[in-house]
């Protein structure tokens, strides 16, 4: 289906809301479990992170294959440019953010398991039974730093993105948000 200023493809809408909502929940849970050291949530966070990683790659491929849809209304060139930059940050960030988490976990020796299915093994520390040891400490550290940095980049991009969507809907009264909600304008 060709995307127009009136209508978005169902795949665009489904991928947007599935990746977007998973991503927002992962941000909130990640923040909470880190601050409060709730280790029981880590396996769930990693499992959903791995799922978002795969879906975000599919989404990027979909967007690259289809190109961006034409704007829903005739808004200023600077606004269109800013929206496009923010959308690219979100598209790439939804891949790099979980990827950095997965690398951090794997190289930190804690392995990767998706709902109990092991994709990358743990690295037990023979000197400390029950504990793991890093496979590559420097790489795990870099991935951790990237995960921390991307948190703020993504929060900033998301704030701009949601503010833009609300501005279109409430102030401009155009169909940008309605189109993403599956309505034909
Ligand atoms: C309450 C949350 C959100 C709202 C209200 C919202 C709203 C929208 C709207 C209205 C569009 C269409 C823009 C246009 O037609 O030019 C859009 C596109 C987009 N949104 Fe969101 N969004 C939300 C959350 C997210 C999240 C969490 C992400 C990713 C982390 C995201 C990533 C994108 C991307 C990459 C696009 C570009 C179009 C595409 O590739 O599907 N959005 N969003």
TrEMBL record:
It comes from the Bacteria. Keywords: Cell membrane, Electron transport, Heme, Iron, Membrane, Metal-binding, Transmembrane, Transmembrane helix, Transport. SUPFAM superfamilies: Transmembrane di-heme cytochromes. It is found in: Cell membrane. One of its GO terms (molecular function) is electron transfer activity. The keyword Iron applies. The chain crosses the membrane at residues 12-33, 39-62, 88-115, 149-170. It is a multi-pass membrane protein. Residues 10-182 form the Cytochrome b561 bacterial/Ni-hydrogenase domain. GO terms for cellular component: plasma membrane. InterPro entries: Cyt_b561_bac/Ni-Hgenase, Cytochrome_b561_oxidase, Di-haem_cyt_TM. Its cofactor is heme b. GO terms for biological process: respiratory electron transport chain. Belongs to the cytochrome b561 family. This is Cytochrome b561. The lineage of its organism: Bacteria, Pseudomonadati, Pseudomonadota, Betaproteobacteria, Burkholderiales.
